[in-house]
Amino acid sequence: MSYLLNTAEEQQAMLAYLGVPSVEELFVAVPPEVRLRRPLHLPPALTELELHRQVEELAQQNASAAQYPCFLGGGAYDHFIPAVVDAIASRSEYYTAYTPYQAEASQGTLQVIFEYQTLMCQLTGLGVANASLYEAGSGVAEAVLMALGVTGRQDGEVLVAETVHPEYRRVLGTYLANLPCSLRVLPAPEGFLDPDDLQAALSDRTAAVVVQSPNFFGHLEEVADLAAAVHRVGGVCIAVFDPISLGLLRRPGDCGVDIAVAEGQGLGIPLGYGGPYLGILACRDEPAYLRRLPGRLVGQTTDRHGQRCWVLTLQTREQHIRREKATSNICTNQGLMALRASVYLTALGPQGLRETAELCLRKAHYAARRLADVAGAELRFRRPFFKEFTLRWPGPTDALPQQLRQRGFLAALPLGRWFPSLADCFSLAVTEKRTRAEIDALADALAHCRPPSRP
Amino acid sequence: MNNVAATELIFELSQPGRRCHRLPACDVPPESPEPDLPERYRAAAPPPLPEVGEVDLVRHYVNLSTRNMSIDTHFYPLGSCTMKYNPKRHERWAALSGFAALHPYQDEESVQGILRLLYELQEFLGEISGLPAVSLQPAAGAQGELTALLIAAAYFRDQGQTHRRKVLIPDSAHGTNPASATLAGFETVTVKSTPQGLVDLTDLRSKLGPDVAVFMITNPNTLGLFERQIRTITDWLHEAGALVYLDGANMNAILGITRPGDFGADMQHYNVHKTFTGPHGGGGPGSGPVAVRDFLAPYLPVPVVVREGERYRLDYHRPKSIGKMHTFYGNVGILLRGYCYIRTLGPDGLKQVSEQAVLNANYLRARVAQVLEVPHPGPCMHEFVASARKLLREKKVRAMDLAKRLLDFGIHAPTVYFPLVVPEALMIEPTETESKATLDAFADTLARIVQEDPDFLRAAPHTTPISRPDEVQAVKQPILRWQPSGASSSSPPAPAAPAAETPQVVPAAS
């Protein structure tokens, strides 16, 4: 099965026009010694019906959050997606278009991105947002690259709180591997970054400090205090936020943050086994930041008739013009995910976002109280949290996810793989989708997951 | 198409108190004596998002969608972007809850179906490239480039060859290549092209040395030409102890015809959204898997999907790995579409894709050559570059003017002003999913356009919702977000002026 249109007769007519006897002749530039002389070893072609059966079978081999109440978090959350998000994002005029290089043929996409940029500014309290990055992990890396440029401390130090998602930290480490700066992780044994500990680590070499709030353990950090401390040494404060939490919490920009980064998955994007997601990046509206902003930007202007319209702008920052001097190599981004986030935030509006955040907060705290009642379970940290929290369990936690799934839940993220000292801990996330009945049932299920007897 | 209401911004439609989405009542008992959220963290008000009803919202975004050209509505011969038809079945399959509703941290036993799919895709991509070790993690072609260069850096560090600081890049390369090389900590060195549009072997030879780490080559190259001397080039690089990286943006031309591994590449990335029909999404998501030779496999990002008997799992234990490029496992939703495409076409279908893409490109090339100069001798691969240089000289009509006028005829413009080595370039890639009739219509339209009044062309397009936006103004006084009227714009002056001679460079995106 293929998607070709030209009939054998049409192909013959085209070859005749070219004056060549066969398609084979068109590949003369491919030297014989590098030609593949056999068919590719791939499975044979399937019809739509045949492949539909196979793909459905593969899908059914997975246990999904559509069947099981999902209490997993760690950077991906089972928030409700209103139907309008899918309806709009499945308009093929959006999803089968490309980067809006020709403004006249792309006003739909360009205006959507301009609105997305505005929504991100409204959400974060910062002045500029780009047209999206891949996801939060590489978003953090891009933010740090910006900060190195803004401070001019290219060979300086980047400080990252241990409470920042360990995979974001790892992606950052990969991106910085061959650059002159150094990377230091700031321990946070109590589940948050103590401003005094940060103070002790700061120096005039500090280019950037990365914090996350709510952090990987679910806790709120003292972002305003941390940002003030970073500024005193001339560094850049980068904060990772949860967009849903901003229905209730103070915005990064209002806390003095210079660059705010987020995983936008919670804004109407399916869990999708980790991607495609949406890297949100917003920063101060200052030339030094704007010059180094990675990725695409859409700006407002007027056309030759004086009509308001939108174009890709400030492209001199970008790789296709700056080449090796570009601020980033980002080219393809997550435009369709930015559309989903825009529709989601518009559908919710300020009240909807506030109510969603309030439900997450209330239900998570209810869940924490209920689950900490289960024999042996207790909250690991005593810190304010939003929708995610960490429990200590009497014994190893590796088998818990499977045990809970057998009882009908996707729940419990064991933390030992990232934090050996937390091998007896797991985290849970509670979104607005979870009901009291599901939370109560999870508590019952957990009570039945007998911890292995202690040696 | 010209619904005036669609030009209003969603913020201008906002009416305080209007709502779209409502939340259920809270069903858990009230807060414990301690408040759930201490006051100091709480914002006084939620963010000032727009307040609209569902009808407002739907009309707004649906009307906006009609102000786009797309594959489903128009011929889109945007060179180097491979804008081919996106099968509808893929959208249905990607939306199955057994894929769309999987949490990335589910236990492996509960995701055997998706892990098997990803494992098989790794195998397919390894076979198609002749480079057996594959990471699906990079989220886009440019991230694939960076991944491969970080792998090269780790490999040379491991070999004690940290003096290899240079990455060679042809002058016709995509801009992402030099940007990725710099980000990976290398110095970039440009290699010239010959007048025939191929790598200048003399120039390459002069730049080879013990300090070279990688040669990044696009083959077929961005002029749509296959580098005939590819074996010589890769042999030279290997003799110099360096690695060869293939920018896989143009894989659509060589599926089942030749394999980068067989012509000497050590690493390559794929653009799943180009070659294997992930829809481009108005700029993404894409997906940029990387395939490498076995000796580079230990450096791939973690995790890699591995099979043990009938079970699949994510292998994180790879001590030499460069680390992670993506928080989770890459753009799985796009990978899934690529998998389905390969399964639908099979080995013969994939080869036919390349054959038909090349036939279409050559046919269109021959037809366009009747109208515009095509500076490099044929045959071409799946795309070609025409030049409007003569038209500029004789009538002061630029490549951009032709591009804009094509929009009036319901044809998306080709890529213009890329590659940089061709003046007034129009880079045209019809893809295999277009018919002879569509190609004829394009060629006929172009022939008609070049005869038109130059003033009329310079004012084109004439029928689109807007025409010739003032890009200089957009740069000089950047307005990057909407603000309520009365609010003073705090946007700063331009960071840099646009290049004066180049009206607009439209790049070939990886």
Automatic annotation (TrEMBL), chain A:
Q: Which reaction does this enzyme catalyse, per its entry?
A: N(6)-[(R)-lipoyl]-L-lysyl-[glycine-cleavage complex H protein] + glycine + H(+) = N(6)-[(R)-S(8)-aminomethyldihydrolipoyl]-L-lysyl-[glycine-cleavage complex H protein] + CO2
Short name of any one Pfam family annotated for the protein? GDC-P
Q: Name one GO molecular function term.
A: glycine dehydrogenase (decarboxylating) activity
Q: Which InterPro entries match?
A: GcvPA, GDC-P_N, GDC_P, PyrdxlP-dep_Trfase, PyrdxlP-dep_Trfase_major, PyrdxlP-dep_Trfase_small
Task: Show the SUPFAM superfamilies listed in the entry.
Answer: PLP-dependent transferases
Extent of the signal sequence: none
UniProt keyword list: Oxidoreductase
Query: Any idea where the Glycine cleavage system P-protein N-terminal domain is?
Result: 2-445
Listed under GO biological process in this entry are:
glycine decarboxylation via glycine cleavage system; nucleoside metabolic process
Under which EC number(s) is this enzyme classified? 1.4.4.2
Q: What class of enzyme is it?
A: oxidoreductase
Quaternary structure (record): The glycine cleavage system is composed of four proteins: P, T, L and H. In this organism, the P 'protein' is a heterodimer of two subunits.
Q: Which family does it belong to?
A: Belongs to the GcvP family. N-terminal subunit subfamily.
Protein role? The glycine cleavage system catalyzes the degradation of glycine. The P protein binds the alpha-amino group of glycine through its pyridoxal phosphate cofactor; CO(2) is released and the remaining methylamine moiety is then transferred to the lipoamide cofactor of the H protein.
Name of the protein described by the UniProt record: Probable glycine dehydrogenase (decarboxylating) subunit 1
Q: What is the species of this protein?
A: Thermogemmata fonticola
Gene of this entry: gcvPA
Automatic annotation (TrEMBL), chain B:
Gene Ontology MF: a single term: glycine dehydrogenase (decarboxylating) activity
Biological process (GO), any one: glycine decarboxylation via glycine cleavage system
Q: Where is the Glycine dehydrogenase C-terminal domain?
A: 354-452
From the UniProt record, list the reaction(s) this protein catalyses.
Answer: N(6)-[(R)-lipoyl]-L-lysyl-[glycine-cleavage complex H protein] + glycine + H(+) = N(6)-[(R)-S(8)-aminomethyldihydrolipoyl]-L-lysyl-[glycine-cleavage complex H protein] + CO2
Gene Ontology cellular-component terms for this entry are: cytosol; glycine cleavage complex
Pfam families xrefs: GcvP2_C, GDC-P
Q: Does the keyword Translocase apply?
A: no
UniProt modified residues of type N6-(pyridoxal phosphate)lysine: 274
Q: How does it assemble?
A: The glycine cleavage system is composed of four proteins: P, T, L and H. In this organism, the P 'protein' is a heterodimer of two subunits.
The record's annotation in PANTHER family points to:
GLYCINE DEHYDROGENASE (DECARBOXYLATING), MITOCHONDRIAL (PTHR11773:SF1), GLYCINE DEHYDROGENASE, DECARBOXYLATING (PTHR11773)
The protein, known as: Probable glycine dehydrogenase (decarboxylating) subunit 2
Gene symbol of the encoding locus: gcvPB
